[in-house]
């Protein structure tokens, strides 16, 4: 049975403990030292509880919402996302886009006359509700996986499973940084899970996070702030604005998502630069 957690807070802190104290290997891929566990998996029973409350790990909640909406907008442009996380600029191969990290074009790519997301919704709504084929593929073999490429998709695929009145999601990742990536990715993927569940009129089920290589930089592992994270609690979340300002990122109607009654869900995540929390 997979380790089971009631919220992302406990899942995240336990994953840090596992990699920090129970690592299997010490490697230096692309010259970067790391501690690593192979074959990490965890089960989140309430995907809506996607927040970390540790005092020393101030979750950039504004970035998390912005990234999820960035994905659902079908974009991978650097200009938008670096407003919320300037450090992401270093991973852009051309200074304009993030073709590996920006999953939007892959989630909304056209497959025949449907987007990838539309196809998943149509299958689970009408074609075969119990299907095991509802997979959103992200990584593909056209990506340059040689060391020279600084931006390769970490996520392989997201599988959606409709069982009774619940929509479950299983994420498959080739690699995930336990300190930074796991927190952000789990937030975005459970947000997408909730979004699709709303489109289908279902309740979000469990979220399962599978990672081939879960790792952590020893420099972060050895810092006092990380040690404190492993034992501290207490909320440090920023305040999310109740209303979306003008010019906020929107999910395009052309993506086939406009039919979903999720405006209340989207309203707090469409935010502007003035609400930025330090990354």
TrEMBL record:
Q: Name one GO biological process term.
A: dTMP biosynthetic process
What InterPro entries does the database record attribute to this sequence? Thymidate_synth/dCMP_Mease, Thymidate_synth/dCMP_Mease_dom, Thymidate_synth/dCMP_Mease_sf
Instruction: Report the GO terms under cellular component.
Output: cytosol
Q: Name one Pfam family in it.
A: Thymidylat_synt
Which residue intervals define the domain Thymidylate synthase/dCMP hydroxymethylase in the entry? 12-214
Q: Name one GO molecular function term.
A: thymidylate synthase activity
Key words, A-Z: Methyltransferase, Transferase
Q: Does the keyword Glycoprotein apply?
A: no
Task: Give the species.
Answer: Brevibacterium iodinum ATCC 49514
Protein's name according to its UniProt entry: Thymidylate synthase
Q: EC number(s) on record?
A: 2.1.1.45
- What's the domain of life for this entry? Bacteria
Keyword check for Methyltransferase, yes or no.
yes
């Amino acid at each position: 049975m997979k380790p089971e957690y009631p919220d992302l807070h406990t899942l995240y802190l336990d994953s840090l403990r596992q990699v920090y104290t129970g690592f299997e290997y010490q490697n230096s891929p692309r010259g970067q030292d790391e501690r690593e566990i192979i074959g990490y998996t965890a089960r989140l029973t309430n995907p809506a509880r996607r927040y970390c409350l540790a005092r020393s790990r101030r979750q950039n909640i504004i970035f998390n919402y912005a990234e999820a909406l960035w994905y659902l907008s079908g974009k991978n442009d650097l200009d938008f996302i670096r407003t919320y996380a300037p450090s992401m600029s270093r991973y852009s191969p051309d200074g304009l886009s993030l073709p590996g990290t920006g999953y939007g074009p892959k989630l909304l790519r056209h497959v025949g006359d449907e987007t990838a997301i539309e196809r998943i919704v149509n299958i689970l709504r009408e074609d075969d509700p119990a299907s095991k084929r509802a997979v959103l593929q992200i990584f593909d073999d056209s990506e340059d996986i040689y060391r020279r490429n600084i931006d390769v998709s970490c996520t392989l695929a997201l599988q959606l499973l409709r069982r009774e009145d619940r929509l479950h999601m299983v994420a498959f990742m080739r690699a995930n940084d336990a300190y930074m990536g796991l927190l952000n990715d789990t937030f975005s993927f459970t947000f997408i899970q909730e979004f699709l569940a709303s489109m289908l009129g279902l309740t979000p089920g469990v979220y399962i996070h599978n990672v081939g290589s879960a790792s952590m930089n020893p420099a972060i592992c050895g810092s006092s702030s990380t040690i404190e994270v492993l034992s501290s609690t207490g909320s440090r979340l920023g305040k999310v604005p109740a209303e979306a300002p003008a010019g906020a990122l929107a999910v395009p109607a052309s993506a086939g998502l406009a039919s979903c009654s999720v405006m209340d869900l989207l309203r707090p995540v469409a935010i502007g630069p003035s609400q930025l929390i330090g990354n």
